[in-house]
Specification:
binds adenosine-5'-diphosphate, 9% strand, 23 helices, ABC transporter transmembrane region fold, four-stranded antiparallel beta sheet, six-stranded mixed beta sheet, 10 strands, alpha/beta, elongated
Length: 631
């Protein structure tokens, strides 16, 4: 019990000591659920539209002219019907009728030509805006993701497939929204407003009838959208699950096949798809029902307009003529056109709101941005000190508890322990991929948080058990360690990593695709990458785990060569590499349980001796020695 209290005190104490320079550590890195409303959406999207304000102004001008043009048909037909009607009351000359028809045709055709240009302009500028905005959104999100700390990528909800789906669908939906707004929503609504003004100008009662129908549509659309919102959100989650599922299958295909588990995987996908299908069907069913209801009300509106206008015409209401029936019906069609589209606009908007939540959630994850200090010394010695460090991953796994250790500059320190003991976590913390919950980490006497993160990493070479090889040539992959390196530097690094001869045997030499290399060869490319970077601090996390015996020996030799004068931390299960180190720290379940030189710690007994002896036994050291002696 005393021990527990002491530990808590230590943890709290260090936290207090370091609060001045430490931002609070966010261990729960799950995405904050941003609830997006229309205003929020507009506010978020505005900065992306702003750079194209001239396109916006141009499109708005075209919209204005286009909306006026949309009323021409109604006006012309009104006049035409009245003129023909007047002609029929008198004995007219056919030449007079032909002139009238010619004028009508010329106006209508002329209007169509102008409208065609306007529509072309609107669509072209709208599409241009969509393409440019979608490019800017992509660039911005990539920029943001590159700036995030590691914790972001390992937190729940940010799995590769889900992130990809959030980004793809977010960009698609947001750029479409901008496009729809300018080439559909805005023209339709402007045209509706003009039509309504003309209806009021023609007759207040007719205008009022048209105006009264509008709120009914809005109400129905609102009810429809509310019913659909939950379903649409579920569909969005299902899309993410489908993406993640497919990605998992591709990544694990060899395991799936070797265990003959194709049926299980197919069934799992089928379950996700089934759920999505029923959600989609429910959405459609509800949409069709409401659309029918709205069509019905639109027809009621048209009937009311016809009855009212006919009544006014029959009662000789001033300004009312037979042409007004056609005129009002056509104007009402313009008023109800956007309203007919309202549900689709609403649906698109709702999608945009849902996708925007996911997308802008990434852009606004400010607390995920990797923080950096300013400490940038000319020389980095590589003397690390960890005191009372606790660390918990975003998913709640406590990986380190009260870890105190010293990694002296220019020495080799081995971290030893069973799998899951917390060895890699220590390396992650020392490279500032994560920050400790509490406790302090110092490098050359300065808090790690104060260090310029880029400068720190410039001085650290990290070789992992499985290193990432990029699609590209071998030369490009090695040069990744130092973009300024010459071809000669690349060749030298390849020699140091004992991969040069194998590269030269490939038909393309250094220009060959790096991904075609075997796992062990790729590992040596990663080691060559570290040689070319030539940092004073080296972290080796099981660097030879995937290599054969000869390669392991070669790599050991080359690592031995660059160890001199550098700070090296090595994590290895290979006792041959551990006993070469200057000191070791033995970890068990996130605690440091032993430390000292390899022989001192061995003499202490305990976990290290158990691991060492088991390792020697598994290698059958006695028989190996006998075999060597016999030969
Ligand atoms: P070791 O290197 O000794 O094998 P690690 O440092 O990799 O151990 O892991 C220590 C503990 O932290 C383990 O329980 C492991 O499951 C957990 N862990 C490691 N990486 C992550 C991660 N990215 N997210 C959540 N838990 C993790």
């Amino acid at each position: 019990m005393r021990f527990f209290i002491k530990k808590t005190y230590l943890c709290t104490k260090f936290q207090e000591q370091t609060t001045i320079i430490m931002a609070p550590n966010t261990t729960n890195t799950e995405q904050p659920a941003i609830k997006m409303n229309l205003i929020g959406l507009l506010k978020n999207i505005l900065p992306f539209v702003k750079p194209y304000r001239w396109l916006v102004i141009l499109t708005l001008a075209l919209t204005f002219i286009g909306s006026l043009m949309a009323q021409v048909n109604a006006v012309v037909l009104d006049r035409a019907v009245d003129a023909i009607n007047a002609m029929m009351q008198t004995s007219f000359a056919w030449s007079q009728a032909a002139k009238l028809l010619f004028t009508i045709s010329a106006i209508l055709l002329g209007k169509e030509v102008i409208s065609a240009f306007i529509t072309f302009g609107q669509r072209y500028f709208g599409e241009k805006m969509r393409i440019l905005i979608s490019r800017d959104l992509s660039l911005k999100v990539v920029d943001r993701m590159l700036s995030f700390r590691m914790a972001f990528f390992s937190s729940e909800g940010n799995e590769t497939g889900k992130l990809q789906s959030r980004i793809d669908r977010g960009i698609q939906s947001l750029s479409n929204t901008v496009n729809n707004f300018f080439i559909e929503i805005l023209p339709l609504f402007t045209s509706a407003v003009f039509a309504l003004i003309l209806m009021f100008a023609a007759n207040v009662y007719v205008g009022l009838v048209a105006l009264c129908i509008v709120p009914i549509y809005f109400y129905l659309t609102y009810v429809q959208a509310n019913h659909l919102k939950g379903w649409r959100r579920n569909i969005f989650s299902s899309h993410q699950a489908v993406s993640q599922g497919i990605l998992n299958i591709i990544e694990s295909i060899s395991v799936i096949k070797s265990f003959n588990r194709e049926d299980i995987e197919a069934a799992r996908q089928a379950a996700i798809q089934d759920a999505m299908t029923s959600q989609q069907m429910n959405t459609r069913r509800l949409s069709f029902f409401f659309n029918g209801l709205k069509s019905f009300f639109e027809q009621i509106g048209t009937v009311l307009i016809i009855i009212l206008t006919a009544y006014l015409v029959l009662t000789d209401y001033p300004g009312m003529s037979i042409g007004k029936i056609m005129y009002h019906v056509m104007l009402f069609a313009n008023v109800s056109a956007p309203i007919r589209q309202l549900h689709r606009i609403y649906d698109d908007m709702n999608d945009a709101l849902i996708y925007a939540e996911g997308f802008f959630g990434i852009l606004h994850a400010d607390d995920e941005v990797e923080d950096t200090g300013t400490w940038h010394p000319a020389q980095v010695l590589g003397d690390f000190e960890m005191s009372g460090v606790d660390f918990t991953y975003g998913n709640g796994t406590k990986a380190l508890t009260d870890v105190t250790l010293h990694i002296p500059s220019g020495k080799i320190t081995a971290l030893v322990g069973l799998s899951g003991a917390g060895k890699s976590t220590i390396v992650n913390l020392l490279d500032k991929f994560y920050h400790p919950d509490c406790g302090s980490i110092r490098l050359d006497g300065h808090e790690l948080r104060q260090w310029d993160t880029q400068w720190l990493r410039e001085n650290v070479g990290l070789v992992l058990q499985k290193n990432h090889i990029f699609s590209g040539s071998i030369e490009e992959n090695i040069r990744y360690g130092n973009p300024r390196a010459t071809h000669e530097d690349v060749v030298k690094a390849a020699r140091q990593a004992y991969i040069y001869d194998q590269i030269m045997q490939l038909p393309g030499g250094f220009a060959s695709q790096a991904l075609q290399l075997s796992g062990g060869q790729q590992q040596r490319i990663a080691i060559a990458r570290m040689f070319i970077k030539n940092p004073p601090i080296i972290f080796l996390d099981e660097p030879t785990a995937s290599l054969d015996a000869i390669a392991t020996e070669q790599i050991k030799a080359s690592i031995d060569a660059i160890k001199a004068g550098r700070t090296v931390i090595i994590i290895s299960h290979n006792i041959g590499q551990i006993i070469d180190s200057d000191q070791i720290y033995v970890l068990q379940k996130g605690h440091v349980v032993q430390s000292g030189t390899p022989s001192e710690v061995y003499r202490q007994g305990g976990l290290y001796k158990d691991i060492f002896d088991a390792s020697a036994r598994s290698m059958n050291v006695d028989k190996i020695a006998d075999t060597i002696n016999e030969s």
